[in-house]
Amino acid sequence: MDNNRNGKVGMTGVKWISAFSLLLILAAIVYVAYLIKTGQYAKVMNSVQQLGILGIVAGVFIQAVLNMLPVPGEFSALLLLEVYGPVWGGVYAWIGGIVGSIGGFYLTRWVAKPHVGAVKPALDKMEEWLNRYGDLGLLMIRFVPFVPYHIVNYAAGLLKVGLWGFAWTTAVGILPYSIAMSCLYAGMRNSPWVWAFVLGIGIAAAVWLFFSRRKNVVLDRK
After folding, report:
1. Which of 35, 108, 165, 205 is the most exposed place for a label (fewest CB within 10 A)?
2. With contact defined as beta carbons under 8 Å apart, do 113 and 7 qualify?
3. 116 with 4: CB under 8 angstroms?
4. DSSP letter (8 states) at residue 143
5. How many CA atoms lie within 13 A of 111 on its CB side?
6. Quick check: 206 pLDDT over 90?
7. What is the residue-wise DSSP string for 82-114?
8. Which of 189, 213, 187, 212 is nearest to 198 (CA)?
9. How many Cα atoms within 13 Å fall on the side-chain side of residue 150?
10. CA dihedral of 148, 152, 157, 158, whole degrees rounded to 10
């Protein structure tokens, strides 16, 4: 009874935090649009750069919070790319993604454990698959199309997944996406056709890798 009550309170808290985060994102978008319109955008970006390590930590923290909650984190990632460039901005967004995924991993254990009953069969099946393929299976889940980033974090939190295995598979699993975002940003800023070609090659390689891995898994099951 107490667990159910605590779980409901936790879920309600997460919903309110998510809604508040979305409002903050919308407010930030409006503010950036205002800065661009008034010509103050470059000045503000330079001021953020002048904050040094404090600005970096704040940016990574914001990215982590957005990635921990079921809200879009692309806007803050783009701001990191804009302030720190496609290389370091991409690195900071990637770090924020890892930290946020670990936060979501533990957040799920706090708010969702009392509500596992309805999805327990699906989780048991996923757990069986992870037990069979280990960390490699968890890594492959990151590359499955149409499986949201947040869902993997939350499911792993509900299952018996070790923190180290979850952390390194997340780091590797979201790396292609982080690189793709950095390349896309750099292409928009500099040479669109060159970077579009590179990005296309990267996506094609990722698709080929996914289907080849999936074929191997099917063969192993047989």
Report:
1. 205
2. yes
3. no
4. T
5. 17
6. no
7. HHHHHHHHHHHHHHHHHHHHHHHHHHHHHHTGG
8. 187
9. 13
10. 90
pLDDT of 136 above 80:
yes
Two structure tokens written together for 169 = 């598979």
Predicted local distance difference test score (pLDDT) of residue 7: 44
CB 77 within 8 A of CB 93: yes
Residue 129, pLDDT score? 75
More confident residue, 160 or 220: 160
The answer for residues whose C-beta is within 8 angstroms of residue 79's C-beta and 6 or more apart is 28, 32, 59
What percent of the chain shows pLDDT beyond 90? 7
Q: Which residue has the higher pLDDT, 161 or 194?
A: 161
Cβ(178)–Cβ(94) below 8 Å: yes
Helices (H) and strands (E) in the chain, counts: 9, 0
Determine the 3-state secondary structure of 211 from DSSP: helix
- Is residue 85 left, alpha or beta, with left meaning phi > 0 and alpha meaning psi from -120 to 50? left
Q: How many CA atoms lie within 13 A of 19 on its CB side?
A: 6
Task: State which amino acid sits at residue 160.
Answer: K
Task: Please state, in angstroms and rounded to a whole number, the distance separating the CA atoms of residues 129 and 29.
Answer: 41
Residue-wise pLDDT tens digits, 61-118: 988 988 887 777 777 788 888 888 888 988 999 999 999 999 988 887 776 655 555 4
Q: 92-112 burial, b if ≥16 CB within 10 A, otherwise e?
A: bbbbbbbbbbbbbbebbeebb
